Amino acid sequence: MRDDSDGNELVWDRPEPPTRPAPTALSRSRIVAAAIGLADADGMDAVSLRKVAAALDAGPMRLYGYVASKDELLDLMVDEVYGELPPPSEPSGEDWRAALRSIAHRLRDAAHRHEWFIDLLGGRPHVRGPNALAFLEESLAALDRTADFTDVADVMRAVRTFTAYVTGAIRAEVGEARAERATGLALAQWQRASVPYLRRMLATGRYPTVEKVITHDGEEPDADTTFEAGLGAVLDGIAHAFAR
Amino acid sequence: MRDDSDGNELVWDRPEPPTRPAPTALSRSRIVAAAIGLADADGMDAVSLRKVAAALDAGPMRLYGYVASKDELLDLMVDEVYGELPPPSEPSGEDWRAALRSIAHRLRDAAHRHEWFIDLLGGRPHVRGPNALAFLEESLAALDRTADFTDVADVMRAVRTFTAYVTGAIRAEVGEARAERATGLALAQWQRASVPYLRRMLATGRYPTVEKVITHDGEEPDADTTFEAGLGAVLDGIAHAFAR
DNA sequence: CTCGGATCGATACACTGTATCGGAACATAC
DNA sequence: GTATGTTCCGATACAGTGTATCGATCCGAG
């Protein structure tokens, strides 16, 4: 038995096996890339060890040489997406709001490119890979380097609040996008109360405010501006509550 | 073929089958209750149609008379939790912050009682059952009835922002709780950088701010006050951005 | 009492993640 | 070059999943 006395060993603790002259050269990153490809194309349900292996012309068990379990593969996928995020465009110095805005948008863009990403984020015990750590570092540093934030505890609180909003909002967006795609009905159509179930519910009179909001006219703001509006509000709140 | 021309039929569209003199009387709510019991006790992985059925002394296929698919069962579980939420303690009138705070805490309490709840929230196409609708109604009404909010579009924006934060924060909390339970390490121990993986990462020097935050001393605020602090900030932001 | 139609649930199927372990492929020793 | 020791690959197997199918069964109508 190998020394696995550290019960909390992480993926990133183990080296890849040496690239021996295998049938076809495999690697952790090729496996992760294949898995991401499948997830992007056909959703998370399409990511099974068998399918990932098949995409690499390998038997299912081949993968266990590089990855200890499916959960570990999922962790690696998440960290890979963090790694894809473009670096901050320019050191934004004292303007922490601009920095956080940039961070939020880069994460959101990635989450839209990989819709499964947001599902995996909070679900598993959430171990922080190197790229996720780098992402956290960027968020923390954006505040810590400014004169507005002098207490590290406040920096932490601010980043937690920020992250909670961003992930929550992205999740809601992605959920709505999926619902639209699944039902074929844009939210606008729900709004006109054309869905029989919803109409019947509203007819009970138990949801007057929902009805009012849903049937009010005025063009729907798109997802971008909705996200932006909420983000602005949250940054305002953070400024008031935690800064200076 | 029955009339299912409405391709978007929901669970709540179909009546329960009449309670015929079956071996043991089954019902949608008994099934949902059993599923929730399993999920609470042993996590979401323990919720399989076979196990739920077994808990009710029935064969797996019995359930399909009451529920069209497992996904539908999950939808019903979610709505059931919404239904468990205690009603607002008192009509809080003009004080929308108090109302939203109350809503947030009731949801958070429920999510802690049923840790699986938050996982299911954003995942599926997220169809709104009667109880979820009632919850949405309460949130919207809390703002709409005040003088601070005159534009329904602002009410909508405010509620979306609020919900995004609350769900995101709960998800983060639950994820941390799970991680603690899985690794046996409280966050405090991570903070002392006692985990070898983390220590090695920090030793690279690439995460100076993370290191600073993690190793600073000062007692950890508990989850309650962290949630509350973030919530306060977000409500502040909402007041500034969308109210009056 | 007989028959027709509805309904229930045992069986079956395709698929999942992963433990096991026979055998092949490699490195070493002579 | 051969024999031996060792490692590691991956085919097979297993227990579990969600659900389609359809024969057996039971109920009510005539």
Automatic annotation (TrEMBL), chains A, B:
Keywords, comma-separated and alphabetical: DNA-binding, Transcription, Transcription regulation
Pfam families: TetR_C_1 (PF02909), TetR_N (PF00440)
Biased composition (Basic and acidic residues): 1-17
DNA bind region: 48-67
Protein name as annotated: TetR/AcrR family transcriptional regulator C-terminal domain-containing protein
Domain HTH tetR-type, residue spans: 25-85
GO terms of biological process kind: negative regulation of DNA-templated transcription
Disordered as annotated region, ranges: 1-25
GO-annotated molecular function: DNA-binding transcription factor activity; transcription cis-regulatory region binding
